[in-house]
Amino acid sequence: MLRFGRQSETAEFQLVTVGGSAQSKSLKTKPAAKRKAATTKSIPSEHVKPAWVDEDDVVPNDLIRPPGVLDVNMFIREAKDPSAVDLGASDDEYIVNHNSKILREEKSEYLPVSKTIDLRRMFDANRERISMGVLTAVHFNPAFHMSLTASADSTLAFFKVDGKENALLRDRVFEKFPLTSAKFTPSGDRVVLTGNRNSFRIYDLQTGEETRASPFIGATREELLVKCQVTEGQPNIAALGTNSRQIYLADLRVSFFYSSAHV
């Protein structure tokens, strides 16, 4: 039978006390802290005064006030009583006040002087009816808030102008009549058309009918109508220009040419 020997009852670990050294360190640090506090207390709290004073370095104690034009109460007093203006104001304040009054003048008929004009990109007016050819005419009808586009592919389209949808109201194709110009009449219910022919046409928006005017007297096949213009002063008269620098006046009520002039 085997017997295991008993180990000695002595502890495997030995406790080491460092209390004495810690106390000695704390005692050593206390005098140093006292000396440091004594040195800081000995420094005077007052600032050292300069040997001389330079006038350029002196900062005035008065606060810088904004121009008088920014003072709402002063602006109201000046508007009611011009004698309340401070005569001792500086030239800069007078210039700011004077220019601000000019820019704030609401009754001015002129726009403020500026080198830039603000523009905003809007939707295309004819995005619901894109023409296959080049646009030859664009005209706005203020009576019905609508616009037209005429194209070289013989198409005429009308759009409702609202800046959002610009919906297509109506379109029309004029066969063998490539449009060169189109204008609303002052009443807004008819459109005068030219299309590289020796005659013009009138399109009625209410009935959708097309009226073809007869060629003017003495015209040749080479003389073509390319431009038209309708004035508000004479709503029934249209001015038609040709490729030979000739201008004809036509009566829209009977579609008849009654006068001509050469430019």
How would you characterize the overall build of this protein?
The protein has 263 residues and is α+β, with helices and mostly antiparallel strands. The longest helix is centred in the first third of the chain and has 24 residues. A hairpin with a 3-residue loop joins strand 10 and strand 11. The N and C termini lie far apart (146 Å). The strands form three sheets. Strands 1-2-3-4 form a four-stranded antiparallel β-sheet, with no helix packed on it. Among the domains are: 41 residues; 128 residues, YVTN repeat-like/Quinoprotein amine dehydrogenase (Methylamine Dehydrogenase, Chain H, 7 Propeller), CATH 2.130.10. The chain is elongated, with a radius of gyration of 47 Å. It is found in: Nucleus, Nucleolus. This is U3 small nucleolar RNA-associated protein 18. Keywords: Nucleus, Repeat, rRNA processing, WD repeat. One of its GO terms (cellular component) is Pwp2p-containing subcomplex of 90S preribosome.
H/E series? HHHEEEEEEEEEEEE
Name the structural class.
Answer: alpha+beta
Total DSSP helices: 3
Question: Could you name the CATH class of the domain at 135-262?
Answer: Mainly Beta
Remind me, CATH topology of the domain at 135-262? Methylamine Dehydrogenase, Chain H
Question: What's the count of strands?
Answer: 12
Give the spatial strand order of the biggest sheet.
1-2-3-4
For this structure, the quaternary state is single chain
Share of helix among residues?
10-25%
Uncertain runs: 21-29, 59-70, 98-106
Taken as a percent bin, the fraction of beta residues is 25-35%
Radius of gyration: 47 Å
At CATH level 2, the architecture of the domain at 135-262 is: 7 Propeller
CATH homologous superfamily annotation of the domain at 135-262: YVTN repeat-like/Quinoprotein amine dehydrogenase
Q: First CA to last CA: what distance?
A: 146 Å
